[in-house]
Amino acid sequence: MGPKRVPMRKCIGCQNMKGKRELIRIVATPDGPIRLDPTGKLAGRGAYLCPSADCFERAHKRKALERALKRPVSAEVWELVKQQLEGTVHG
Ligand SMILES: [Zn+2]
After folding, report:
1. CA of 33 to the centre of ligand 1 (A)
2. What spacing in Å lies between the alpha carbon of 59 and ligand 1's midpoint?
3. How far is the centre of ligand 1, averaged over its atoms, from the C-alpha of 64 (Å)?
4. How do residues 20-66 score in pLDDT, each as one tens digit?
5. For domain 8-90, is the CATH number 3.40.630.30?
6. For residue 19, which of 1, 6, 58, 86 is within the disulfide window of CB 3.0 to 4.6 Å?
7. What tens digit of pLDDT does each residue of 62-88 get?
8. What is the domain partition of the chain in residue ranges?
């Protein structure tokens, strides 16, 4: 038996490839709202971010989430991501 393949995704902040489970998934759902996806199962265009304040700041400054999802991202969405990130870091 070979090693189990872990899907790798690129963080929109630091641009490093990481295992899917190490990253926060943010999804632009087909029916509209941008949502956080802790289960990794929501349909739609996804973006991935390390649970790190540095990566969050970099992605925010560069509007990386807008570019990855190809749609505008409101301040409320950024706030949600930040809260999720803080929960992950400290929880
Ligand atoms: Zn990162």
Report:
1. 23
2. 9
3. 12
4. 889 999 999 998 899 999 888 899 999 999 999 999 999 999 999 99
5. no
6. 6
7. 999 999 999 999 999 999 999 988 886
8. 8-90
